[in-house]
Amino acid sequence: MSDYDLVIAGGTVVTPAEMFIADVGVKDGKVAAIGFNLRGLRSIDANGLLVMPGGIDSHCHIEQLQEGGGADEETFITGSTAALAGGTTSVVTFSTQFKGGGILQPLADYWRRAEQAMVDYTFHQIITDATDAVIFDEIPQVAAAGIRSLKVFLTYDPLHLDDRQFIRVLAAARRNKMLVTVHCENYEAINWRTAALLADGRTAPKYHAWARPAMIEREATHRAIALAEMVDQPIQVFHVSCPEVAEEIARAKARGLKVWGETCPQYFVLSADHMDRPGFEGAKFMCSPAPRDAAASEGLWTCIRDGVLDIVSSDHSGWSYETPAGKRVNGVDAPFRDIPNGVPGLGSRLAIMFDQAVSKGRMDACAFVRLIATNPAKLFGLYPRKGTIAPGTDADIVLWDPTKSVTLTNALAQHIIDYTPYEGMDVTGWPVMTIRRGQVVMQDGRVQAEPGSGQFLAREPYDLIKPTGNVPNGFDASAFLV
Ligand SMILES: [Zn+2]
Questions:
Q1: Distance (Å) from CA 210 to ligand 1 centroid
Q2: Which residues are paired to 94 by β-bridges?
Q3: Which end of the chain is less crowded, N or C, counting CB atoms within 10 A of the terminal residue's CB?
């Protein structure tokens, strides 16, 4: 008699709170029991392996629609392949808006593409044009569809919002029980420094970092927090690059505000020096905010230990290096201003962070699980269905060999992008099997899943992102449609 469809036997189960040797019994795609001597139709020997919740990447750009038609090179099929190969089973990607248009049509178009996914997925809705129609009519419909997070950019042409538009988005989020995620850099400051650098003939990729020093990220973070505090709307600050920026989040938390901070692998293992490689190669490492230096990277660990930063996402954003539509879309002599930003990292996020966090002795596997699965599940309304291993949760599980040493290559990343910024990096700890809702979808690097087998994760309102109720003068301005 088999009580379970699948038993993962004898591994070390890692939850956000504890680690212990046990069997995990899976039935109908869910974890049904954790115990000993469980019997299943199929049994997988996990002796010597860690049994961890599948990764949740709450910030990755996959097949994102582009202005004028088309989409990012990374498709939901190739992106899912990279994710599953790397031990990630759920993603939050981006539906976008184009200035002058609404959000519902692009969302419908994007959703059709996402239906090819082989990982489970949900979206952040990007707002680039806070028109009355979007704010008062369309955002409520997006929330009703189960999308509980908005994304705004405080920099980038033509995406950025001015303060008034940003405030309107914050207020709309508050009315519709959504979270707001923010790209924090000062638009005018970057433009000013960029103009000066180009006037001085400094056009190489390395000047990307010179154009956007840490204080312009810190300023925008401070401003985003202050405006969110005024509206009483919870926010998450995306891709914090250094402790100087995280300090603003720490101060907000100390004031009792619901402000969270995310960072990414590139801020631990890349630096501004990578953009100083000969010729055009520095373009491979260009992302925003720019990676800083070794001291900043080490300082981020303190921010994580202190709970100031609690999520590590990939910000996977693929632009191939050799193809005409990628990094060199404006030519190899293009000034840094005209080179697309972003680095791929969906498949390597867990391996890099496990190596940096656990193999290098900075934290234990439970803390690692919180960073890459539990905390994103909680903040984005997916917990406890996702983000932990316990009876009743989806059986999204990665079997991890903590002793396996691997040299990262682009082929191992399994994305469509033709390079990885982590080429040649040695890591210890590697995913050997990925299980999504009880189904083995990756074994020893071979991904086997049906396109369209990923599920959309509709998100209901949840307590963590409820406003605090503290508004200036006790006057809730967000209740008025202005
Ligand atoms: Zn991003």
A1: 20
A2: 124
A3: N
pLDDT along the chain (482 residues), means of 10: 93 98 98 97 98 98 94 97 98 97 98 98 98 98 98 93 97 98 97 98 98 98 98 98 98 98 98 96 97 98 98 96 94 95 98 98 98 98 98 98 98 97 98 98 98 98 98 96 92
- Cα of 59 from ligand 1 centre, angstroms: 6
Contacts of 265 (CB under 8 A, 6+ apart): 312, 314, 345, 348, 349, 352, 353, 356, 422
Read off the amino acid at residue 227: L
Strand partners, 92: 122
288 CB neighbour count, 10 Å cutoff? 22
Point out which residues pair with 338 in neighbouring strands: none
- SS3 percent helix, strand, coil of the chain, rounded to 5, is 35, 25, 45
- What HEC string does 276-288 produce? HCCCCHHHHHCCC
In angstroms, what CA-CA distances link 405 with 11, 268, 414? 19, 19, 18
Question: Do the strands 19-27 and 4-14 form a parallel or antiparallel pair, or are they unpaired?
Answer: antiparallel
* CA 315 – ligand 1 centroid, Å: 5
Q: Which residues of 163-185 are buried (b: 16+ CB within 10 A; e: fewer)?
A: eebbbbbbbbbbbbbbbbbbbbb
